[in-house]
Write a structure and sequence with these properties.
Layout: E1 3-6, E2 9-12, E3 19-23, H1 31-45, E4 49-54, H2 60-65, E5 69-72, H3 86-96, E6 100-103, H4 106-117, E7 126-131, E8 149-152, H5 155-164, E9 173-175, H6 193-202, E10 211-215, H7 224-236, E11 242-246, H8 254-266, E12 273-277, H9 282-288, E13 289-294, H10 304-311, E14 316-319, H11 322-331, E15 336-337, H12 342-353, H13 367-382, H14 388-403
Parallel strand pairs: 3-4, 3-6, 4-5, 6-7, 7-8, 8-9, 10-11, 10-13, 11-12, 13-14, 14-15
Antiparallel strand pairs: 1-2
Helix pairs in contact: 3-4, 7-12, 10-11
């Protein structure tokens, strides 16, 4: 972006396209990764330059095919040895000369922040961080509050930042809900007959069944065991449906996957539950399902599967907590369940399966809204003059944060 001088103060020409560098540990699978790729694509579509830095991963191919540039750097290993990369990252920031650096995870945030603060003020890009999770309250996590602007992905996360990190200026926090691509996930888009035949070829037990889907990584807190309890209650109520658990197990969670298989047998659901594993056809699976569930044991920061399902025209059942509750209260309140009793959840699920209409997904949960608000945050920072007084303010804030106790 071109620099202009007004009253002896350097500013950026806001009419020029922006060069934005997003930084995250890797481009494997997950909500943060998918959100990064979505944002990169939208930046390119709007005439900006998109750069993404990570250690790499399967999604790099899609990222580059959609026009972004990927920079491979070791920004994922949680080790003090990673600090040796700060100088090379500083050189990289100078060479890339982004207008904005947007950091999406804690370890990369530390490395980028250390590199960034060592630059002359006129070479510093504007620094944005996003709280994608309810991080543990400690000094390591506090780095996510050191952006010049801090994005909270839900009201749940916004409140958590304010309550947990007193050194983060509330005036610097911006609430921007995660958004779904309405062209990718749409009630108007239906799976093809060929897709159904492939699915039935892989899982013949699904043919002709009414599907209740539980998407998410195979990890205990996501609530797959609770989902089985609800499905067992539906079976006792003679509700005709078949549960599908969609999601892969991390290398260190394979024991939990076997625990799930045993629980399916204990609940007597061997003929009523299928484990589909990690899938790349989520839009089709949503459209093929009669109900999608989110039953995480603890509040989720947001819950991307909720908005994807609603955008696909499918009712959602979710616990009344965290980010999923924010979405359903706004778009589909009849899908909220309280308490910890699968029998009560099954009663709600039965009602939803009997044909309650789905409200249209609110615009605030769309990708277009997310991108527009994020670009506004970038512009807000770029509109501020780069002056020595701003440097002093930043250093003062950083000093207070370093001296403040963390708990």
């Amino acid at each position: 972006m071109k620099m202009v001088e007004v009253n002896n103060v350097l500013s950026r020409d806001l009419e020029a396209p922006m060069r934005v560098l997003q930084v995250l540990p890797a481009l494997n699978s997950g909500g943060v990764e998918r959100g990064t790729v979505d944002m990169a694509r939208e930046l390119m579509c709007r005439g900006h330059e998109s750069l993404v830095m990570s250690t790499g991963g399967p999604m790099v191919k899609q990222l580059e095919a959609e026009g972004s540039v990927h920079i491979t750097m070791p920004v994922a290993r949680k080790s003090l040895w990673s600090l040796r990369h700060v100088r090379s990252l500083r050189r990289c920031l100078v060479q890339l000369a982004p207008d904005v650096v947007h950091v999406r995870s804690r370890l990369p945030a530390w490395l980028i922040w250390l590199a960034w603060r060592g630059l002359p003020v006129t070479q510093r890009p504007r620094l944005v961080t996003t709280f994608h999770g309810l991080y543990s309250r400690n000094a390591y996590s506090a780095i996510m509050g050191r952006g010049e602007r801090v994005i909270a992905i839900s009201q749940t996360v916004h409140k958590y930042i304010v309550d947990s990190y007193p050194n983060v200026d509330p005036n610097h926090i911006r609430l921007i809900h995660r958004g779904v691509d309405r062209y990718q996930f749409s009630s108007a888009s239906k799976p093809s007959p060929e897709w159904f035949e492939r699915l039935y070829g892989q899982h013949p037990e699904l043919r002709g069944k009414r599907l209740v889907m539980m998407p998410g990584r195979l990890t205990r807190w996501k609530g797959q065991i609770e989902f089985l309890g609800m499905m067992a209650a539906l079976k006792r109520m003679n509700v005709d449906c078949h549960g599908i658990i969609v999601g892969g197990a991390e290398p260190d969670k394979e024991d939990y996957q076997e625990e799930l298989r045993q629980a399916i047998r204990v609940f007597g659901l061997s003929d009523h539950i299928s484990l589909l594993g990690k899938r790349s056809d989520m839009q089709e699976l949503y459209s093929a399902s009669a109900l999608v569930c989110n039953l995480s044991q603890s509040p989720e920061p947001f819950g991307r599967t909720v908005i994807e399902a609603l955008a696909s025209g499918v009712p959602v059942l979710a616990r009344n907590q965290g980010g999923p509750a924010e979405v359903l209260k706004r778009c589909f309140p009849q899908g909220l369940v309280d308490g910890h009793k699968p029998e009560q959840w099954a009663e709600v699920a039965k009602g939803l399966l009997e044909g309650v209409g789905v409200h249209e997904l609110a615009y605030e949960f769309t990708l277009d809204n997310q991108v527009e608000k994020t670009l506004a945050v970038y512009r807000e920072l770029l509109d501020q003059p780069i002056s020595q007084s701003l440097v002093k303010t930043r250093r003062s804030c950083a000093l207070r944060m370093e001296q403040a106790p963390h708990g």
